[in-house]
Amino acid sequence: MSAAGHVIARASETGTPHPLGASLVAGGVNFSLYSRSASAIELLLFDREDDSRPARLVPMDPVTNRTYHYWHVFVPGIGPGQIYGFHVDGSGVLLDPYGRAVAIPKAYDRCKPATATAMKSVVVNSGAYDWEGDEPLRRPVSRTIVYEMHVRGFTRHPSSGVTPAKRGAYAGLVEKIPYLKNLGVTAVELLPVFAFDAQDAPPGKTNYWGYAPVSFFSPHPGYSSRAGTLNVLDEFRDMVKALHRAGIEVILDVVYNHTAEGDQRGATFCFRGIDNETYYILNADRTYANYSGTGNTLNANHPIVRRMILDSLRYWVQEMHIDGFRFDLASILSRDSTGNVLASPPVLWDIETDPVLAGTKMIAEAWDAAGLYQLGSFIGDSWKEWNGRFRDDVRAFFRGEEGHVVPVADRIIGSPEIFGHREREAEQSVNFITCHDGFTLNDLVSYDEKHNQENGENNHDGADDNRSWNCGVEGPSDDSEIEKLRNRQVKNFLAVTMLSIGMPMLLMGDEMRRTQRGNNNAYCQDNEISWLDWNLLSKHPDVHRFLKLLIARRQMRDNEHEGRRISLNQLIRDARKVWHGAKLNQPDWSCSSHSIALGEELRREGMLHLILNAYWEPLDFELPHAGRWLRWIDTALPSPEDIVEWQSAQSVHSDFYRAEARSVVVLISRSNSD
Q1: Residue 545 buriedness (CB in 10 A; 0-12 / 13-18 / 19+)
Q2: Axis-axis angle for helices 480-499, 388-399 (nearest 10)
Q3: In this predicted structure, what is the pLDDT of residue 324?
Q4: What confidence score (pLDDT) does residue 672 get?
Q5: How confident is the model at residue 426 (pLDDT cuts 50, 70, 90)?
Q6: Bridging pattern class, strands 102-103 and 120-122
Q7: Are 105 and 50 in contact (CB under 8 A)?
């Protein structure tokens, strides 16, 4: 017996340093943990996640159970489902950085560390699942339309129609796959599904978004509808397999820039207790560097952390069949152990050149919370980048700000100002107007100011620069003219997103005008502020229809060029595009201009004429002489005339077209072969 009264069981073998984590081997489990700073480590084995003491305690001898800085031990007679943790130099219970599943006690309390309330790791047999031939889809980026969504928020609302026990779960998302397929999106980008600490939030709130990781290998157990710690893995994989069968890829929003342990005042549940100096970037005074804005910053370019990140990505691709990753605050991965920006960051090149990850979509949020902004200059050849300037410039243009005709024109043709020097494909730019962080599309046209009081931070949190416009009234309005204008603005944003060159990304619920009541930072709102109210689908069917037809046409054009690899520069150079203003061949690039028109010759299809009028009055636009012009889109018209089936476009009997105030118009002139 130990001094604490725990039963000490000596391992029959010393174990091996590879692989890291808990690995099933003949007759038992091998455990391996890296810690350079530890002088004593004990493996703790539990019968249940909420036990107040371990059933077995296995000490690791610093001589026989240690190779270099790897501590290892083989324990016979245990297998999948075994709950475990570590003591490092007398610490509390610590998670395994390579643990494949996390058990969260019913009494878990972030602020009261104790054995009974500590999260624990679980031994997993990840190879036992039957994928039935499933593999990542490898859809070309030119044919990808991303739908950013929250697993819980997508189906948690009672109006979702999902089986009550599955609402807010991976299995609930499966029930709504027919909706996603009908809408036409080709990929879902899931907000963080790595196991996270839901208590990493202000008092009385919940960390809803999930940007508080506790493990980089474990799916979040809170999104499982099934009892039992290991069942979350099968439910997650069932979801991936079902989405793949529907032709929909799965992209994960991943957080390799910080953990939920926070700064020196935060909790200790894993990395800090195992090897603080290895896992985190520390200041000269040993406090935590905070380039993430959340209290700490992962030391991503340390060799051990680099390996962990790469092993994590490989695991999600090989064992969980994930199609791609969106890297939160990806520019942090460019920093070294002192926080300086590296010209050639090892971890990014590790990801870039890894053969296991070849063909996997890599999307960077190319900035961090400390002001590092790398849009257009992010390291690597295969990375796509969230185009924050597309969002800002298109918002400002339709709000009526001066000086935005030139940048909007550039955004429409793939942002060559930003990306053209890279000689990359057009889809390097991920074009979006809204995402989880900020206003929804409905709120973008309904609020001038953020309304985050319910977050409990006196409305100081969230961005102040939203480039939004409430169309005359702050918040909900019964005024039919204001509502008509808001609907038009929503369609304007959707049209420009889908018609621009690049990879389009849509936010969950924008197709039915989901609102967060003006909250632009709903990270801690696990309630109806964040959940998708499916009743809105019947309230705004015209918006849903508008987007669905936009997607259908884009998919039709993309399918015609399947398999072709065209660089952005080549696309811009070869395309026959002519800029116009209200008068042909006379674009107004002045600061006071609020309108622009683009003529484009479509391959084998004739011509297209795109008119953007962000002016507050109607404008008459001259039309090129191209035979018969047909109207496909006019966002100023009521549904169903606002957009029609491509083959049902209506004739325009004039040499000019009147574009109403704040509207988008698309005219087509078909070739004789069409």
Answers
A1: middle
A2: 140
A3: 98
A4: 53
A5: confident
A6: antiparallel
A7: yes
Domain 576-669 class, CATH top level: mainly beta
CATH code: domain 141-560 is 3.20.20.80
The pLDDT confidence band at residue 6, using thresholds 50, 70 and 90, is very low
Would you state the structure tokens that stand for residue 548, as one six-digit string? 């669905």
DSSP letter at 289 equals P
Q: Which structure tokens are listed for 251?
A: 């992209």
Q: Round to the nearest angstrom and report the end-to-end CA distance of the chain.
A: 85
Beta-carbon count within 10 A of 563 CB: 7
In which region does residue 321 sit, left (phi positive, over 0), alpha (psi from -120 to 50) or beta (all else)? left
Decide if 636 contacts 660 (C-beta within 8 A): yes
Break the chain into its structural domains and give their ranges: 21-128, 141-560, 576-669
288, two tokens: 């935590």
Q: Which residues are annotated as catalytic? A: 328, 365
Averaged over 74-91, what is the pLDDT?
A: 96
Residue type, 196: F
Conformation bin of residue 475: beta by default, left when phi > 0, alpha when psi is -120 to 50: left
Of 251, 390, 387, the closest CA to residue 327 belongs to: 251
Same fold, 21-128 and 141-560: no
Q: Which of 1.10.10.10, 2.60.40.10, 3.40.50.2000, 2.40.30.40 would CATH assign to domain 21-128?
A: 2.60.40.10
Helix, strand or coil for residue 337? coil
Beta-sheet strand order (sheet of 21-25): 21-25, 28-34, 70-76, 66-67
Angstrom distance (rounded) from CA 620 to CA 447: 30
Which single residue is written with the structure tokens 């969002």?
391
Residue 191 has which token pair? 């907000």
β-bridge partners, 612: 596, 664
* Span 598-615, pLDDT tens digits: 998 876 668 999 999 999
